[in-house]
Design a protein that fits this description.
heterodimer, A: alpha/beta, Transcription Regulator spoIIAA, four-stranded mixed beta sheet, 69% helix, 8% strand, B: alpha/beta, six-stranded mixed beta sheet, four-stranded antiparallel beta sheet
Chain lengths: 377, 256
């Protein structure tokens, strides 16, 4: 939106002086005149040495007028044109004086875009730093674990139980709903294919094996990353912002012992239990579809499941869940402990905890599946 | 005899920096027993960074920090922890551990280092809470009390182990004038009662004149200490316009 031209009138009648008549309303809602426009109109009169104002016709004004004049005066200073502010309202003159006073002695260095190679180098250095932080953190966890086993660590059982309850029992509803639905989806997709061969009963095998071996653990892992991993990162990040972690260090308490160990242990204990529960719910989901939609006898379905799912598969699933528990807790706590000291840093820590945990879960699943394949499990 | 004259806390040629950016260089000062020592300076002058290097949270680039003659940054981790155990810190926000009740917050350092049975720890906790005027709040959680109460609880935690040195980071920030005044009185009482040495980082003039008997003024432009001495004497005797301006909120320009 552009200011109406009639609000600004340029009077060249006096030699070497430009008299600017400002009239009408100058408000932010009406827009500002374009500064370039002013320079263009000024340039043909190269011998202008002074600018004066006539604001007798000025109506309502706000920052719009001051912003325009501020820019005008700044550009005139560069062209060595004297600006006489006498014709302006007193309020405008005061605001201009304040703006032109230049309180700030230090101006922050302007961020220049780095050349490509510098950016690349920067990224590599940052990746190196993150790797060192991770190794350092894992080292601290190992040391703390050693101290915990030998009874030297400061470990609060109450904290452990409270966290276990929050990340275990508190997640049951969500895990139940999602696993049930995953079981149902698996059963439906399987049924479409198996129907062609008249082998619907093998849905029990598909759902049972898939859930117990990998799907139960992976789905629980993804859910818990979003729920508990993010909450670990945000909790510890907020503690960092509030100086709580510094206060621990000053007191000679290792934040890893006090804050991280209870979280890792709680999740390592709770993840397999949640996974077992997810497996059961998935199988039940398959049972609903088979019995309700495909008309398979539930007892026969359960019998088939019992035959198909070997104990080894259960162990494979539980190993997945243990590894995921460690991954989620370590990612969440690492991001939280290394969080910056602002509200946005806490948000970033939570996001990156979830992203890195899910990525690591997928990578870990691939590795475990490959190892199981090689070992013939 | 020589031992008692040794300063409780001493900084020698301290240089503080973030990566390549130097915050302060060549800082020298010493804090004697039972002093209330003020580190003052404008916003961004490096007061908090200096505090961090005094309480073991940020290693200075150069220079040394001595606690009763023990070189802190040269000491091993165990020795550093032992030194820090002899000092308490009240953070700007109180920095109470949010998952613990007030009593548990104050009990934690006692559980770690005193070796006392739980019942006796509880007694000490209740005493410390009473000292800061929070009797009856033992089982509240930090989120359930006001900012001023959190600061006082943070102070109770800082004095849990009867430290030799107590650090205060901007004690009056976020407090109303009366609470700020009450905290100043508390600082004086603690010094008199515990004989503790107190280091306060602040730019609140009222607090500076009310409690401080020795001070340094940090200046961001010259990255150094531009004045040291008792705040009231600085105000009357200093010839440096920057010092006079700081101590009078710019109302007097000082002698150029």
């Amino acid at each position: 939106m552009q200011m109406k031209a009639e609000n600004l009138f340029f009077d060249y009648s006096t030699p070497k002086t430009l008299r600017i008549k400002i009239s009408g309303n100058w408000q932010i809602a009406d827009g500002l005149p374009v500064e370039n426009d002013f320079s263009r109109r000024l340039s043909p009169q190269a011998d202008i040495k002074q600018i004066t104002f006539d604001a007798s016709g000025l109506g309502n004004w706000d920052s719009a007028l001051v912003a325009f004049l501020f820019q005008l005066i700044s550009s005139c200073a560069a062209k060595h044109i004297q600006v006489n502010q006498d014709g302006l309202p007193a309020g405008v003159r005061k605001l201009l004086a304040l703006a032109l006073a230049g309180h700030e002695k230090v101006s922050p260095p302007k961020a220049m875009p780095d050349p490509f190679l510098a950016m690349l180098g920067d990224r590599v250095i940052k990746a190196g730093v993150s790797l060192r932080e991770l190794l350092d953190f894992l080292g601290q966890i190992t040391v703390s674990f050693g101290r915990l086993i030998t009874g030297k660590a400061y470990f609060r059982g109450d904290d452990f139980l409270a966290i276990a309850q929050k990340c275990g029992a508190g997640a049951l509803g969500l895990v139940c709903l999602i696993s049930l639905l995953i079981g149902i989806v698996l059963a439906f997709i399987g049924a479409l294919q198996l129907k062609i061969f008249g082998a619907q009963i093998f849905i029990a095998d598909i759902v049972g094996i898939a859930m117990v071996r990998v799907m139960g653990a992976v789905m629980t892992g993804v859910l818990i990353s979003g729920r508990t991993g993010a909450s670990f990162a945000a909790e510890l990040g907020t503690m960092q912002v509030n100086d709580e972690i510094d206060a621990l260090k000053t007191m000679g308490v290792s934040p890893v012992e006090f804050l991280v160990m209870p979280r890792i242990l709680a999740l390592v204990v709770m993840m397999p239990l949640l996974t077992l529960y997810a497996n059961l719910m998935g199988i039940l989901g398959g049972l609903f579809v088979s019995a309700g939609v495909l008309g398979i006898n539930p007892v026969e379905y359960l019998h088939h499941t019992y035959d198909a799912v070997k104990l080894n598969y259960l162990w494979v699933g539980l190993i997945h869940s243990l590894v995921f528990g460690v991954i989620i807790a370590v990612c969440g706590c690492l991001r939280g402990i290394n969080c910056g000291r602002s509200a946005s840093a806490v948000g970033e820590a939570a996001t990156s905890a979830v992203v890195s945990a899910i990525t690591c879960i997928v990578i870990a699943t691939a590795i475990i599946t490959f190892v199981c394949q090689v070992l013939g499990v | 005899m020589e031992k008692s004259l040794r300063p409780v806390l001493e900084a020698r040629h301290l240089e503080l920096a973030y990566d390549d950016y130097i915050v302060m260089r060549d800082l020298n000062f010493s804090v004697n027993k039972s002093d209330i020592f003020i580190i003052m300076g404008g916003s961004g002058s490096g007061k908090s960074t200096l505090l961090k290097s005094l309480i073991g949270q940020k290693e200075p680039r150069k220079g040394m920090v001595f606690y009763s003659g023990r070189n802190f940054w040269q000491a091993g981790e165990v020795e550093q922890q032992r030194i820090m155990r002899g000092s308490g810190v009240l953070y700007q926000s109180g920095a109470l551990w949010s998952s613990l009740s007030l009593a548990e917050n104050i009990a934690l350092p006692l559980q770690l280092y005193s070796g006392l049975p739980a019942a006796q720890i509880r007694e000490i906790v209740l005493l410390k809470l009473a000292l800061v005027g929070l009797s009856g709040c033992a089982d509240f959680y930090p989120e359930e009390i006001s900012q001023g109460m959190r600061k006082r609880a943070g102070l109770a935690r800082a004095i849990a182990l009867d430290p030799e040195v107590i650090f205060f980071d901007e004690p009056s920030s976020g407090l109303d004038p009366l609470s700020a005044r009450a905290l100043d009185d508390l600082i004086l009482q603690l010094r008199d009662a515990l004989g503790a040495t107190i280091v306060v980082v602040t730019h609140e003039l009222a607090s500076i004149f009310a409690v401080g008997n020795n001070a340094v003024l940090l200046d961001a432009d010259s990255k150094s200490i531009i004045a040291s001495g008792a705040p009231k004497e600085l105000l009357t005797n200093s010839k440096d316009p920057r010092v006079i301006q700081f101590l009078t909120r710019g109302e007097k320009q000082g002698v150029a």
